[in-house]
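Structural prep section.
Before we set up the soaks we want a predicted structure of the protein with D-glucuronic acid in place, mainly to decide which crystallisation condition to try first. Input record follows.
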Amino acid sequence: MNRPRFPLMVPLLCLLAALPCVASAATDCRAPAAVCEQAGGNALALIERGTPVQVLVDSADFAAVHLAADALRGDLAAVAGGAPADGQPRTAIIAGTLGHSARIDRIVRDKAIDTAGVEGTWEAYLLQVVDTPEPGIDRALVVVGADRRGTAFGLYELSRRIGVSPWTWWADVAPAQRANLHIAPGRFIDAPKVRYRGIFINDEEPALGGWSRATFGGTNHQFYERVFQLILRHKANYLWPAMWLPRAFYDDDPKNAEVADAYGVVIGTSHHEPMMRAHDEWSRHGSGRWDYATNSKVLQEFWRGGMQRLQGREAVVTLGMRGDGDEPMSEQTATALLEKIVADQRAIIGQVTGKPVEQTPQVWALYKEVQDYYDKGMRVPDDVTLLFADDNWGNIRRLPDPADTRPGGYGVYYHFDYVGGPRNYKWINTTQVERAWEQMRLAWAHGVERLWVVNVGDIKPQELPISAFLDQAWDPDAADLEWVKQYPARWAAEQFGAEHAATIGALASDYTRLNARRKPELIDAATWSLVHDREAERVLAEWDALVERTQAMAAKIPTRQRDAWYQLIEYPVLASANLNHLYVAVARNRLYAAQGRASANAWADRARTLFARDAALQRVYEQDIADGKWVHMMSQPRIGYTHWQSPPRNILPALASVDAPEQGVTGVAIEGDANAYPALLRGPRLPELDPVAAPTREVVVFNRGQAPIAFTATSRTPWLKVSPASGEVTDAQALQLQVDWDALPEGRHQGQVSIRGKDWTEVYVAVPVNKPPAHRGVRGFVEGNGVVAIEAEHHSRAIAPPGGQWQVIPNLGRTLSAVTAWPATGGPLVPGGDSARLEYPLVMDADGEVEVRVLVSPTLDIRHRGGLRYALSIGDEEPQLVNVRLDPTPGDRDFTAWEAAVIDNAHIARSRHHVRAGANTVKLWLVDPGLVFQRIEVARDPHPRGTLGPVESARR
Ligand code: REL
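Run finished without errors. Recording the tokens verbatim:
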């Protein structure tokens, strides 16, 4: 098929010359159906001197086609800044569905338009400029659809190509105006590869629920119209409607189904709502227990009602039965009973539709415990789509053998938002596009081609991952590594234009990465360490740098784009940064109060200010921008979680206060230790100084009282310097300790610094120092403080698997990127010899035992083979197999490991090895495909400190 790699307005972007383009602007503008400002050879004007063409559709064509044409007319007018001329046009866009538009059928026939690859192909469409398509019209762009959605998608695709984002209404993305736009001649055809592609609106209180009530009076058909437009503008076709109690799509507003049908959107119900019945309908219309063993007749009639209500409209019917609501069935539920339920449901489908049952699309969702039934052997007929699920945290649980094809095919149900353990995540976007892409690429490679559906919570603010998921679903073959690398910038270009696309795309990627490594709901005052490795400072510095880049960019955003900018970039960055600052302020308040620092009170004030700022940022989103259109939309509580469920509102974490005396009182705190000094019977001892990882260390002199107090600091060791050597402390004064490394012989030493306050306080700080052998001439990552940390992409050698390659996935993971072997559908490899591996050179201080921690993304045992293995060796050792086993099933032996992994968005796998002083090589061997490596940490001390671990080691 003749298709660009990315279905956006690439030529237009290239023309604006800010994005790196695969081909030159001139070449791109000549590609069939490329839309450009300038008139390339024989291009047809869609907009000329501010006047758009007319869009003509046969009245007999489908409502979905008319609605798409209306959308395009509006979009053309918005871009052109004017309406089309009245009267008989000389040029036009003529759209129609084969067999349903006499006009299109005639043009196809008269002009001998080649419909191969379109006719008879699900949702396919063709765009082609045709001369004299009919009397009176000189030239037209003809949009030919194989079916109603095919034609509609041709029209929505044109909307995107003329510069109208799918988020035009949902994020107020204002299209750029163009006086002239042309479409290149040539034949362009396209069709989706995944049959059903869609979203699940879920857990939509209080944000989307409150907003939809205030805006539309509820999730009625006016609301759904907007949802359908959003889906279709992404050329997707499928929806699981909102069902969070007490919502019921069919029951709440009978027009919902009618309008869905008019737009051409296929409706399903979520995984635990069988037979087109919303969960809440059982309490409205059911009677007796939700229990098939005792109440089958009533349930059958309830389900029959769901099918009858469809009136033949397009749907994908969920089969099976879970407990009442999103709960497992009772333990005793036998597979045999479930199989009977499915058989009875299928009988009802057949009776109600009057068609062979396999003609109605059906899914069986293997969600949570239902997958166990599947694993234990439960099966459904072959024409039913098997819908595999992720673990609710973006890690797919099971995939089919690529060789196992079945008429019903396979699907995946994925999450960008979740209510459940270990904690809800509902507020902000925390899904790395790269992770969703990598998981869905795996799914596609394993033959998941029938249905992709993603839980998007309140829709906003999941704009970026929603676009990426649906764009990938359209053509997973085109979504290769290059595609995902460019996606954030391309998406930014679609919202804000090409000029700053790379910068804006990087802002979106970066805030997502920072949010993904620990979701905001999981952050508390203990998350970022104040005492180890300056972790809290490092984390806040990353956020501050991002805020600074965001503000610098904000200054360049024109007024017409400011509403979209705030929703898509500024709010997520500022509010996420603020939340991290808030928790660190709370942590400082508590730590300082425990240490008796007078400044604890100021940190309490700062925490209160940051808490108020969170509300202020929300207020801007909900009231100040877009004329208050997004009222309630950011009302999801995110501060003050204590267990999995969301707090009822944001709650400022408890703060401590100190009663500071009027006179100054000296105190001392050191790195790596939460205690304050002086303390009874023990003195402070710093963590070791080391020329590579910790060449300096910090000691803080602080004040426990209100009046400033003088101090002196004296080194009692010739090679150790402390500065400043004296001063007056109002709040706190950091002292830097420096070692004269040249004066120090190799080996371990101990220095001492004494600190005296004017109030007679006296503290002696022990300063251990290690000067390891230099190992001159040895190259590699150098041990420091007993640790070597290496980002997986910084290998010195990569031996690819047979027929495959190692791929670096940028941005994926917690710190830089991730590395995975691709393709990932093969069998296990035997490690050793010249087999596939990554190599990392180390320079170690001394011989000894080490623990090697390999950080992998929390990929699950997708092929049900008992885990995912890699092997590791150092030097000439035999490769040691390490099995990554994570299981989201509560009670499973690997459940705790799974919980820890999704909280950290990484699993830390461990093995023990022996190293030699000097040069060593770590070999990370590929065994089972699918693992995604983020980092390697080699440590003499088995306990990692802090949440993120050490910074990457120096490389020599
Ligand atoms: O994320 C999920 O799949 C489930 O938690 C939801 O589907 C579930 O229906 C929940 O909204 C409440 O019933």
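Observations: Residues 1-10, 13-26 have pLDDT under 50 and may be disordered.
Flagged for discussion at group meeting.
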